[in-house]
Fold this sequence. Notes:
GO molecular function, one term: DNA binding
Helix content: 55-70%
Domain Antitoxin Xre/MbcA/ParS-like toxin-binding: 115-165
Organism: Sulfitobacter pontiacus
Shape: globular
Protein name: Putative toxin-antitoxin system antitoxin component, TIGR02293 family
Low-confidence stretches: 1-11
Domain Antitoxin Xre-like helix-turn-helix: 45-110
Number of strands: 2
Strand order of the largest sheet: 1-2
Amino acid sequence: MGATAFQSDSSAIPLIDVDAEDAVRAFHLLGGRKVINQTVRNSLDAHDVIVKGISSKALLHLVDTVSVLSSGDALNKAIGMSLRTLQRKKADKGKDRLSPEQSSRAWRFAELLAQATDVLGDQDAAEAWMLAPAIGLDNRRPIDLLSSAAGAEAVENALTRMEYGVYA
C-alpha cells in the first residue's frame, strides 16, 4: 500500500509522486526492465537504481537510441564521459556499472530528453533543440548546460516555460 497523508479530520489521502512519470520515461529511454533488471515506478525507485549505479548496458542503450549522444562532445557534456571510455564499456559488453554521479547525469539527461520530446512533439525535434541555441537560455545550447546541476535545472525550467507558452 502507498504512503498516505492525513488531514485534520483523519481521512487518508494518497500521496502522489509528481515525478513518477518523468522517472518512468527516463527508465524506458535507458532500456527499461530488460536492461536495468529492476522496475522503476517512481522517483524513489529511480534513486535506488542511480545510487546502485546503472549498468553500462543502459548507457549504451541510451546512446544507441539518442543520436545527439553519438558525438564525444555531447556525451561528455551530458553524461561526463568521453567517447573513448564509452567504447571501452562497449568492448566490455556493458557488464560494469556507472558511478552514481554518471548514473545520475545519464538519468537526468533521459528525463530532460523525455520532457523535451513531450514539449516539442517528437524525439528528433527534441534532439535538434538540445543542439541549437535557445532564446530562453540566453542563446546557449541546452546540451552545453547539462554539465552542472544548475544548468540542467535551467534547461528544465526553459522546457517548462515553453510548455506553458512563456519564452522569456
